[in-house]
Amino acid sequence: MTYTLQIKCLEKEKIILLKGHRKSVSCVCISDDGKFAYTGGKDSSVNKWDLNTMVKLYSMPGGKRGTKYPYHTGPILSIAISSDSRYLASSSMDHLVIIWNPDEMKVCMKLSHHKVPVTAVSFRHHSHMLFTADCSGRVCVWNMPLKEVLQDQGARTNIEVLGLCGLISERCVSCSGFGGPGVCVWKVPEEICVQYSTKNVLESSVECIYAVNDEIFIGGASTNTIYVWHSSRGSPVFTVSPAHPVAKLCPPSESEPFIRPVANWVSAVTGLYGTDLIASGSSTGHIQFWRLVQPQPERSIEVKGEQQQQSRTQVSIERIPGLNISLGGFINGLAFSSDRRYLAVCLGQEHRFGHWEPRRHIKNGLLLIPLNVS
């Protein structure tokens, strides 16, 4: 892991806005070489972008819900690309997972195993193993290019899955909401699910998840809290609350003639893989950069095994001073480019899963925040 990664400053005037979706942008992924970005939107379309020329190369439009159509017919909820850029997976409210050829954006196959909206997709690192999950708690494992499901761990939790992150080993970590907020590690060879709680009675859902490695997981929650889990502990080893600035009050309107706080969830979290750099986004449009803090391994032979284990789990995150930015709208997704040029931000007038808040008066689009990394 690379430490002491330095970002000089965030210059708001240099942020690039790419407009190509008619509605809120809900998800983004970037190819491993950092050349292309792929986005999904609530307009049911999937777009491919060139990050060198800032040109939209392909746009696969969505169709009318309930009709036969070659592409998606519902809002796109998640998108992921394999490490070798051979397969692109997108999931939607239409219960489908579509596997694309990322080069020409042609449909390779459609996976119709799920019976409810598919909320998350993710590839295992350096593999064609694909994980898919839906709002009924079902997590399925696929091995591209096979169309048959490799493993269906559907009846294990019955808790809606909101996010997925594939690991290096044959595992993935998911975050859950209604029915049991927390995270689960799905172990494919053993066919078991290990659950980790938030230990917070006020928590209603863990909205997003990022795996630093196979042992450390970072989740953002609806209580404006960021949790850090270690795989050897059943509850968080570190908690930050509030993770983002406290939201302002929502003024009264005809539909809601009372004053209430604006919803302030941690709606997205990601990291620059192989480094200690983390970024989180909120439903109020605020982005905060963090640094992962881990104890240096003890080299002394006098250190006992129990002490080593305690040292390994002493993981935390700290804010990077001055590295935050407010954009307005909903931050529906975040992704770092592996070449360290950009942080891609999905900005929308609405949350990716629904419409619970008044529409934000911003432009829907993919934002590219230049990173002055040294």
Automatic annotation (TrEMBL):
One of its GO terms (cellular component) is small-subunit processome. This is U3 small nucleolar RNA-interacting protein isoform 1. The lineage of its organism: Eukaryota, Metazoa, Spiralia, Lophotrochozoa, Platyhelminthes. It is found in: Nucleus. Keywords: Nucleus, Repeat, WD repeat. InterPro entries: Rrp9-like, WD40/YVTN_repeat-like_dom_sf, WD40_repeat_dom_sf, WD40_rpt. One of its GO terms (molecular function) is U3 snoRNA binding. It comes from Schistosoma japonicum (Blood fluke). WD repeats lie at residues 18-59, 69-101, 111-152. The keyword Signal does not apply. Its main location: nucleus.
